[in-house]
């Protein structure tokens, strides 16, 4: 681990320490953009924000429309990807109660060794496919 150079907050003058800076430089926490670049911000819910970088004034309308579509796609994909019981024989009340308890205890997961992509990554791939489509 390397040390980070910081600006001193206080300097000693006589027997007192006088403040000289209010904060130190933390490059990880600062939002820096190169001069002449644009960022599109979409507040999709109360407190929720999405950012799209490298947007130009010419591409901003399409990027904004895709950001809105991406949120709608993710909501629908999450709903459609939710695991549901399948089969011909319906579950008994006892089995349904066990499944509900398992889901609650496991944060919505079902017992499985399979994995799936998140709705966010699927919608990202869908938008990328639309952008890269060449007839």
Task: Walk me through this protein's architecture.
Helix 1 crosses helix 3 (119-132). The radius of gyration is 25 Å and the shape is flat. It has one domain. Helices cover 36% and strands 16% of the residues. Strands 1-2 form a two-stranded antiparallel sheet. A two-stranded antiparallel sheet has the order 3-4. The chain contains 3 helices and 4 strands. The protein is an alpha+beta fold and 135 residues long. The model has no long low-confidence stretch (mean pLDDT 78). The chain has helices at residues 60-81, 93-105, 119-132; strands spanning 10-13, 16-19, 39-45, 48-53.
Mean pLDDT: 78
Tell me the helix content: 25-40%
Radius of gyration: 25 Å
If helices are DSSP runs of H or I spanning 4 or more residues, what is the number of helices? 3
Distance between the termini: 50 Å
Total beta strands: 4
Shape: flat
Largest sheet: 2 strands, antiparallel
In the residues, how many domains can be counted? 1
Order of helices and strands: EEEEHHH
The low-confidence parts are: none
The secondary structure category is alpha+beta
How much of the sequence lies in strands comes to 15-25%
Strand order of the largest sheet: 1-2
């Amino acid at each position: 681990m390397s040390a980070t150079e910081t600006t001193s907050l206080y300097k000693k003058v006589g027997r007192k320490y006088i403040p000289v800076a209010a904060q130190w430089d933390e490059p990880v926490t600062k939002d820096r953009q190169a001069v002449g670049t644009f960022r599109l911000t979409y507040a999709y819910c109360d407190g929720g924000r999405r950012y799209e970088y490298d947007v130009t004034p010419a591409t901003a309308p399409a990027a904004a429309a895709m950001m809105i579509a991406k949120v709608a796609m993710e909501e629908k994909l999450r709903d459609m990807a939710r695991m549901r019981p399948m089969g011909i024989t319906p579950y008994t009340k006892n089995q349904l109660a066990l499944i509900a308890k398992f889901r609650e205890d496991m944060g919505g997961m079902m017992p499985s060794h399979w994995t799936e992509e998140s709705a966010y990554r699927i919608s990202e791939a869908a938008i990328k496919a639309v952008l890269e489509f060449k007839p």
